[in-house]
Structures are given as C-alpha cells and as structure tokens.
C-alpha cells in the first residue's frame, strides 16, 4: 500500500486489492473517489497527456482540462473531487 498527500486529499494506492485507488478528502473526512485496478490504469493513461477531454471512468465522469486540471463528477452530476494542474501532475507521477 502506498499513501500520498496531495493538497487536501490523501491518495491510497493498493493495486493488488479493491478498490485499487482511494481518494480521501482529509478536511471533510470521507472518501470521494474509489477506482478498481483497471480504472486505475486508465486514469494513469489519461493523466499522461494534457488534453481537454470528457471521459467516463467507472461511476465517475471526468473532465480533464487542457491546462492539466481534472474534475471527478459522481452520480447526479455532483462534483466529487477537483485537482488543480499541479495536484493532477503529482497524482500522475504517483500512479507511474
């Protein structure tokens, strides 16, 4: 298990278990994103290129900005997590 603090989020990566990636909002005190191992690999691929895109990843809609930021939207369009360009880059490096 690997854990990294990125901004107000604690990222837990455990590729051999499910969920393989958990993003926990430290200030609010709850998990905001859960991804399985296949989705984890797809997220790493998406973060490798800065390009404006909208993608579905598991239960989440992702909006990847051309500036490098990323927003995860959960059910009913509720924003689950926003990472600015520096945070998204740090997540990308963490997933490599």
Q: How would you concisely characterize the structure shown here?
A:
The chain is of the alpha+beta class and 96 residues long.
Comma- or semicolon-separated keywords:
96 residues; alpha+beta; four-stranded antiparallel sheet; globular
What does this 3D model show about the protein?
With 96 residues, this protein is an alpha+beta fold. The protein has 2 helices and 8 strands, in the order ββββαββββα. The chain has helices at residues 37-47, 85-95; strands spanning 2-6, 9-13, 21-25, 30-35, 53-57, 60-64, 70-73, 79-83. The chain has a 4-stranded antiparallel beta sheet.
Structural class category: alpha+beta
Beta content comes to 35-45%
Distance between the termini: 14 Å
Gyration radius (Cα, Å) is 12 Å
Low-confidence stretches: none
DSSP helix count? 2
Mean pLDDT: 93
Overall morphology: globular
Number of strands: 8
- Biggest β-sheet: count, sense, barrel? 4 strands, antiparallel
Strand order of the largest sheet: 1-2-3-4
Secondary-structure element string: EEEEHEEEEH
What proportion of the residues is helical, as a percent range? Answer: 10-25%
Task: Describe the secondary structure blueprint for this structure.
Layout: E1 2-6, E2 9-13, E3 21-25, E4 30-35, H1 37-47, E5 53-57, E6 60-64, E7 70-73, E8 79-83, H2 85-95
Antiparallel strand pairs: 1-2, 2-3, 3-4, 5-6, 6-7, 7-8
């Amino acid at each position: 298990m690997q854990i990294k603090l990125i901004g107000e989020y604690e990222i837990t990566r455990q590729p051999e278990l499910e969920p393989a990636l958990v993003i926990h909002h430290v200030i609010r005190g709850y998990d905001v994103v859960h991804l399985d191992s296949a989705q984890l690999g797809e997220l790493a691929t998406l973060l490798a290129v800065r390009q404006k895109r909208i993608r579905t990843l598991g239960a989440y809609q992702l909006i990847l900005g051309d500036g490098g930021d990323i927003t995860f939207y959960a059910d009913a369009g509720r924003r689950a997590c926003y990472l600015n360009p520096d945070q998204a880059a740090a997540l990308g490096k963490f997933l490599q």
